[in-house]
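Q: Could you fold this chain for me?
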Amino acid sequence: MREPAQPFRSATDLPRGHSGPPSAVQVRLLRLDGGIEAVIGLILVTSPISGIFQALRLPQPASRPMVVVVGIMLILLLPLFWWLSSRTLPDMRLIAVGNLVSAAVLAGWILTTGHSNTTGHLFVLAVSGALVILGMMQLAASR
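A: Sure. Below is the predicted structure, expressed as structure tokens.
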């Protein structure tokens, strides 16, 4: 007969890839991440009405419907990350890598389009920079 599973006593006892209950820093970073994503999402969702979409003149494939859909998806990350922050998390490095990959994709997209709108470039590069900073902070907190 099998012995019952023993509860985890520390993060080092956890299976690889799981960090256990999040630390206070991880909770704050995950909630900050959700907040940043929601603010960017709100800007994107309201951009066709507010005039921001026209001012940014983002290159293809950034159509109005696509920008709104991406904005909605970003807004939905806030409740998801808030919920995750109060539970046992998967490895925090996964969220950090997601932010870093997203930053690289955004920067690569805007820098390789040949599009010359400074406002759009600055907006996308600022978002990319924020994702890099957040990703690096999350990597540091996962150690």
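A (continued): Strands lie at 18-20, 89-90.
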